[in-house]
Each structure stands twice: as C-alpha cells, then as structure tokens.
Design brief:
124 residues, mainly alpha
Length: 124
C-alpha cells in the first residue's frame, strides 16, 4: 500500500468530507469506506481509493471536479451529468473535504497494515 499524503485538515473537515462522499453518491461505486475493489486497479475496476497512488492525489481536482476519468466511469462533479445529479455541483471546498476523508481512510488502512506487519514480525 502506498503511503498516503500528509493529512493537513481538521477532524471537522474530514467528517464533512464523509458526509459529502455519501451525498454525492461516491459510495455507489467506491462503496462505503472507499474500499471499492480491494486494491487500486485501473482499466475496468472501481478503484479502492485507499490505495490511490500519488498521481491520483496530485490530479484530484481534474478527476473529481473536471471529469478527466469520465471514460472510466468517473464523471466530473463540478458539472456532472444531469441524469445522475440534476441539481448537484461539487465545489473546490467540497472536493477538498472529500479528499480529506479519502486520505483519512487511507491512513487508517495504512496504519492497520503496518501494525499487522509489525505484529507478524514480533511473533517470529
């Protein structure tokens, strides 16, 4: 699992991101707790956002707001397709909050993986 980016926001923003993740139906594809496919897989599988490589974090606005991954099924949520989101428009602040939630979940998974590895090593 790649080491997630540094978390730079408050718990309040992370919780806002969690609520927005639900209200923008992100869980419909990436599932609750962002673990869509169990691992980061491109070309046909819904990504487990906990495993997002650094480039995804770097391109966050292009992907989430701009729709740069529309061909893979990820619409741009700044101006989403009307059939899916007739009145919803994600702002930069919303995208930042959702990103904070994704980073929070990635850190939880990363720490759990590290703890499991240390525990296994300690038993040997």
């Amino acid at each position: 699992m790649p080491k997630p980016p540094e978390q730079k926001v408050s718990e309040e923003i992370i919780r806002k991101g969690e609520r927005l993740y639900v209200s923008f139906y992100c869980e419909g594809c990436h599932s609750p707790f962002i673990d869509g496919s169990g691992a980061w897989v491109e070309d046909g599988a819904v990504p487990d956002l906990r495993y997002a490589p650094p480039q995804v974090h770097k391109d966050w606005y292009g992907i989430v707001l701009g729709g740069s991954h529309w061909s893979k099924g990820m619409p741009g949520l700044a101006d989403p397709p009307k059939f899916a989101f007739p009145k919803a428009r994600m702002t930069v602040a919303d995208a930042d909050a959702v990103h904070a939630y994704v980073i929070d979940q990635a850190w939880r998974a990363y720490k759990a993986e590290q703890d499991a590895a240390h525990s296994k090593h300690d038993k040997q």
